[in-house]
């Protein structure tokens, strides 16, 4: 910026006092101060916007690098899984061929069908019904549906006789 020393500012102030006069000088100084403040805020906003755009570009570059790294890791994992899967299938096919040729060996029948999942058939209503009533009453288990008004009336303190 401009390099003004104290002596130059004093000279400018003296000239302004002579030219403008003591009546208008405070108002002009206040207006100049407001304009300088606005200019400084505008410059600060422009700097902040430039910094944000630079940071955004850097983030986009980092995002691109991160995406390429993720794709590389994904591809390497996929290749590892595929090779392990091929090895497993080739081993399984070798074992199934050996197992079908001699079914009386120590491993038994490797081509037997896998069992399917069967739900255990547990019924929670049956289990709740098997709980004794005295235990339900002690634990506060509700046995019947009750409206909100009935519940309030049930727990309301008794009225005093007047």
**Uncertain ranges:** none
Strand content: under 5%
Specify Rg, calculated over alpha carbons.
Answer: 44 Å
> What is the general shape?
flat
Structural class: mainly alpha
The overall pLDDT, averaged over residues, is 84
Biggest β-sheet description: none
Please provide the count of β strands: 0
Helix and strand element order? HHHHH
SS field, number of helical segments: 5
Residue share in helix: 55-70%
Distance between the termini: 91 Å
Please tell me about this protein's structure.
- It is a single-pass membrane protein.
- Belongs to the TatB family.
- It comes from Roseateles amylovorans.
- This protein is mainly alpha-helical and 162 residues long.
- The chain has a domain at 6-91.
- 70% of the residues lie in helices and 0% in strands.
- The chain has five helices and no strands.
- The longest helix has 77 residues, at 25-101.
- The protein is flat and about 110 Å long.
- 0% of the residues are buried.
List the helices and strands and how they pair.
Blueprint: H1 6-20, H2 25-101, H3 124-129, H4 133-139, H5 148-155
Descriptive labels:
162 residues, mainly alpha, 5 helices
Short description:
The protein is mostly helical and 162 residues long. The chain has five helices and no strands.
